[in-house]
């Protein structure tokens, strides 16, 4: 469902160690309406798994995806890149048919979301 590159896995583990109770944390990956193209990605740590969540394990990281987001990000690849300007996560979504210039907003062939004016 979600694939982390080695660099992304290493960075997420590093970030987890800065959290209180890292052993209880999940990486939550999801989608919400908004952005220029209709949907935006959400990434963050969460201790609460619900019945609405799919759980996957990648690089020893427990990842949660809510059922509403699962179809929109199935096959998502997450990478991490460092540059002179800093670092950041790069998301490649095979379901996206259009993305905004910054790469954080997308739409799929079957769902458009609710775009915001940019």
Describe it for me?
With 118 residues, this protein is α+β, with helices and mostly antiparallel strands. It has one domain: Sandwich (Hypothetical Protein Aq_1857, Chain: A). The protein contains two helices and nine strands. It has helices at 6-17, 67-73; strands at residues 2-4, 26-34, 38-46, 53-58, 61-66, 76-83, 86-92, 96-99, 105-108. The strands form two sheets. The protein has a six-stranded mixed β-sheet with strand order 4-5-2-3-9-8. A three-stranded mixed β-sheet has the order 1-6-7. A hairpin with a 5-residue loop joins β8 and β9 (105-108). The longest helix has 12 residues, at 6-17. It starts with a strand and ends in a 10-residue tail after the last strand. The mean pLDDT is 88.
Brief overview, please?
With 118 residues, this protein is an alpha+beta fold.
List the helices and strands and how they pair.
Blueprint: E1 2-4, H1 6-17, E2 26-34, E3 38-46, E4 53-58, E5 61-66, H2 67-73, E6 76-83, E7 86-92, E8 96-99, E9 105-108
Parallel strand pairs: 1-6, 2-5
Antiparallel strand pairs: 2-3, 3-9, 4-5, 6-7, 8-9
């Amino acid at each position: 469902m979600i694939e982390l590159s080695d660099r992304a896995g290493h960075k997420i583990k590093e970030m987890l160690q800065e959290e209180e109770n890292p052993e209880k944390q999940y990486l939550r990956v999801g989608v919400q309406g908004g952005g220029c193209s209709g949907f935006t990605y959400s990434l963050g740590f969460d201790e609460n798994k619900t019945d609405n969540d799919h759980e996957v394990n990648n690089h020893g990281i427990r990842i949660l995806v809510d059922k509403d987001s699962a179809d929109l990000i199935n096959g998502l690849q997450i990478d991490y890149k460092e540059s002179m300007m800093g670092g950041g996560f790069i998301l490649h979504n095979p379901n996206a048919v259009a993305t905004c210039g910054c790469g954080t907003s997308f739409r799929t062939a079957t769902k458009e979301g609710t775009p915001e004016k940019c």
